[in-house]
Design goal:
The complex is a heterotetramer, with two copies of chain A and two copies of chain B.
Chain A (H helix, E strand, L loop, with lengths): L2 E8 L4 H7 L9 H4 L3 H10 L3 E6 L11 E2 L1 E4 L3 E4 L12 E2 L2 H13 L5 E3 L3 E2 L1 H10 L9 E7 L9 H16 L6 E7 L16 H13 L9 H8 L6 H10 L4 E12 L2 E10 L1
Parallel strand pairs in A: 1-10, 2-9, 2-10, 4-7, 5-8
Antiparallel strand pairs in A: 1-12, 4-9, 5-6, 11-12
Chain B lengths: L17 H16 L3 H9 L1 H7 L4 H8 L3 H6 L4 H10 L4 H9 L3 H11 L3
Helix pairs in contact in B: 1-6, 2-3, 3-4, 7-8
The chains are: A alpha/beta, B mainly alpha.
Bound molecules: fe (iii) ion (2 copies).
Chain lengths: 279, 118, 279, 118
């Protein structure tokens, strides 16, 4: 059976793409963010995953409001990045893992998650940048991948409890996959930020730090909050932390924190990073 | 015509729920089209004509032509889609944040830095 | 609060469209099928619904395999019919009911159904023909409508139990809608038929009749069967009976059978029809 | 490359699962395009060229050109999408049923009527 080696949560602001393209990693503005990664690179070199399941939200590249799924799972041989409207150069395609995709789809529907299956799928910055940050300076990402999208665009969003349980079902699916592959799960987005409205620029450091702390040993803590609570506490885009929570749900048993980092601001966002090893 | 549920009020914040989505569909669909460079060029050539092609309301068209983000949100625009419109004009998230909060860009950036210090 | 007056299940073979267009209702081939409807027309005239929630499966008009939802709910002001590949004339648009659509969407996500929301949606013969059969000879269908799609195309399909519970959640959503509207729920498709393979033409009268009988007072009977069981028992397209089961789930409390009809064959299909009044 | 789960065997029946979907994606995508009358006309003008445009495998192309439904299914075709291809040639469901079962259309229709009598 496949093994989940652990999980990583990381912010996905588009702006990061520009910093990488222009080699700004050691600039004053960017250093506190990029310096979070080397310990996680070391851990990845040690646990050697073959496949990355990436849990993120699409920002209007692959999905529009005509067909907006709550949860969707990719099942394509390859995933293309594409222009999101800013004319930023697109990244090379990502290898899929069709065996894992279909095994997950079968397990998730059996477990009564009503997913949308995507046999063709464009992946946006929320998928590409975390992979770029975690496996830097490569011509093409060395992982096989399975994209999983959570709707954080069109309200109502799935509840925190539903997301955690969705993560649990993904974890069980991976662990019941007849393969000797080593799998890392990545959740992207957040932490607190709000792009729109008179409250634009809202950040909540206190909540973010509590959330990161609880996520290790008491992840159900966050399920006490409704989605509107989470908007109030973390901002209209801060709710992307649902992707972090879904990732955490995938990890079986107890976890140990490998490394974490938190820095304000990157663009309008509180930038968080956490890696956890599965026991 | 709108949902009858009691809504959570969060000052300075619009939740993109069904009511917003109903109002904003045409505007958001236009913004979604900006994933294509050809469409962005077509929009820049004739902004008003491009808005008309997507059947925007007068209120939406006015908000787009004046590049007024708060008015676009009031007219049903969603932040994720509106960002593609902002990108056409080279606006970054601090420009957009400053405009909405009535601050200078420098003051808005200072406010963000401040949030990291408490 | 809105009231569910009852539910109707009916076959949706495209061929029926041609029979209506050519006025063949009283021809020898069609008479046993069309004669099932007048008692249901009478019942509808008595219970006077304002809105029809139509539970069906798309046949590759609105959805392709690039984005294939398990469950989807329409939220458009109007739904267009369109060419499905056979060049048959398209029917006039159907009025939506945005208030009910969004109320259902909010309730269903809250109840942990991971639906796809469709703010633009083409409706195929599985939606249009049942409305045509139930409200014949009208310029435009007099009902406001909410389309609900169940995936019966790409396996794995949702289990029978999940479909029944999805129906239950739809029923609760309708009943908690602050409106004085009267709602009829329609499930379309089936009964036993298989279009593809060496077993094409397979029909199972015994199972269909048992299913129709159980559907009134013991609908959970069918949840003893897995989806592959249902394919074996009813054919590759017979699994469209999941739409019937979903409809049955929406009806609160006990139901009484208004009328039913069963005839073999219409095209390659066992044609079923049932109307049930909610207490 | 395929799922390792044990599959249910139902004689004469192919379940359109992930394995079938993987094999048949290009073929089904071509059939989906036949919702458009223009595409149907383009296909009829140059069938082989149209198959090539959708990157069909040689096996799929051969099945399409010879209009062999069982071969299309073996190559990953899904009944709902294939019906759109059948429609181009004016084939109804009894034609397709007869072809797959190796019966005459009359015999196939008689078999359906018979199913109502037991
Ligand atoms: Fe984001
Ligand atoms: Fe059907």
């Amino acid at each position: 059976m496949a093994k989940i080696v652990g999980g990583i949560n990381v912010t996905h602001v588009p702006y990061i793409g520009r910093a990488i393209a222009n080699n700004l990693q050691q600039d004053e503005y960017w250093k506190p963010f990029f310096d979070g990664f080397p310990p996680i690179h070391d851990w990845l070199a040690k646990v050697k995953p073959d496949v990355a399941v990436v849990i993120y939200n699409d920002h209007g590249l692959n999905f529009f409001l005509d067909k907006m799924p709550t949860f969707s799972v990719g099942a394509a041989p390859e995933y293309q990045n594409a222009d999101e409207g800013w004319g930023i150069p697109t990244l090379p395609p990502y290898k899929g893992d069709l065996d894992l995709s279909w095994h997950m789809i079968e397990s998730l529907i059996e477990a009564e998650f009503d997913i949308t299956t995507c046999q063709e799928m464009l992946v946006d910055h929320a998928f590409t940048l975390p992979l770029e940050l975690l496996w830097p300076n490569q011509k093409q990402c060395p992982m096989r991948t399975v994209p999983v999208c959570v709707n954080t665009v069109q309200f109502p969003l799935p509840t925190a409890a539903r997301c955690f349980n969705f993560g649990r079902a993904i974890g069980k699916a991976i662990e019941s996959w007849e393969s000797d592959a080593r799998v890392v799960v990545i959740g992207t987005g957040g932490l607190s930020h709000q792009l729109d409205g008179q409250r634009a620029g809202f950040i909540n450091k206190e909540f973010d730090l509590m959330f990161m702390e609880k996520l290790v040993n008491d992840p159900l803590w966050v399920t006490r909050y409704s989605v509107p609570d989470l908007v109030e506490l973390t901002g209209t885009q801060g709710v992307e932390l649902l992707n972090w929570l879904t990732m955490r749900g995938t990890l079986p048993g107890d976890v140990s924190l490998i490394h974490s980092n938190y820095h304000i601001p990157i663009s309008n966002t509180a930038a968080g990073l956490m890696a956890m090893a599965a026991e | 015509m709108s949902t009858t549920r009691q809504k959570r009020v969060i000052p300075g914040t619009t939740i993109f729920d069904g009511d917003q989505a109903r109002k904003g569909y045409a505007l958001n669909k236009m913004c979604f089209s900006f994933n294509s460079a050809d469409n962005r060029a077509e929009f820049l050539k004739d902004k008003e004509g491009y808005c008309a092609k997507f059947h925007l309301t007068p209120e939406q068209t006015e908000a787009v032509l004046s590049l007024n983000v708060l008015k676009m949100i009031a007219a049903g625009g969603n932040a994720y889609f509106l960002a593609k419109l902002g990108g056409i004009f080279g606006l970054d998230m601090q420009d957009i944040g400053a405009q909405q909060t009535g601050m200078t860009k420098e003051a808005f950036k200072a406010k963000l830095v401040e949030a990291g210090k408490n």
